[in-house]
Amino acid sequence: MIHLVTAENAAAYHELMEQAFRLRHAVFVDELGWHDLKREDGRDVDQFDDGRALHMLYVENGRVLGYQRMLPSLRPHLLSDVLRHLCDGDLPVGPQIWEWTRYCVAPGCRDRGRMLSPVGNMLLSAIVEWGLESGVSEIIIEMNPIWLLRLVQLHFRVTPLGIPQKVGKDDVVAVTAAFDRRTLNRLREMRGDEREVIVSRPISTRRLLA
């Protein structure tokens, strides 16, 4: 299930976060060719992995099989500071808008064709569950354009911010994706399970904006 990790509870998740950083490196550096992120220790850690980041970990039998990071748009984030060229106009900013980055799933647990994997479904469900309880209703995403239709089918309302451009080995487009209760219902319908996917969280994530 999904664990939410911030600076508040990070000490209890040291080993799992180390797994997450290595999974990130394996996916984004070794597979996708984002060589600017390459580190000798095999850990993908950047300037945004600070006290303002919200990490979401899918953990099964002590192993991190899926990961994603959320960053508040009111503070520096990937689109504002690294990939600004992907946004043709003004940056989307507001307390209700967070950036979804570093989504990655371990080999063997990934999507098959158009089918969203159980791990992928739970990670997306965690964003919507957390967002609905935290006053967040929109996410910024830098992604392969192939995801556009999939997000619409999952009942996200997607708006491109620019045209696709090459990042590493991939074409990447920046979008905003708004969601609401209907999005969560759709994800649960596809999963065949009405239960919440978040099983552990810090007391509050609102202080990440403080």
UniProtKB/TrEMBL annotation:
It holds the Pfam family Autoind_synth. Keywords: Autoinducer synthesis, Quorum sensing, S-adenosyl-L-methionine, Transferase. It comes from the Bacteria. One of its GO terms (biological process) is quorum sensing. One of its GO terms (molecular function) is transferase activity. InterPro entries: Acyl_CoA_acyltransferase (IPR016181), Autoind_synthase (IPR001690). Belongs to the autoinducer synthase family. This is Autoinducer synthesis protein. It comes from Rhodopseudomonas palustris (strain HaA2).
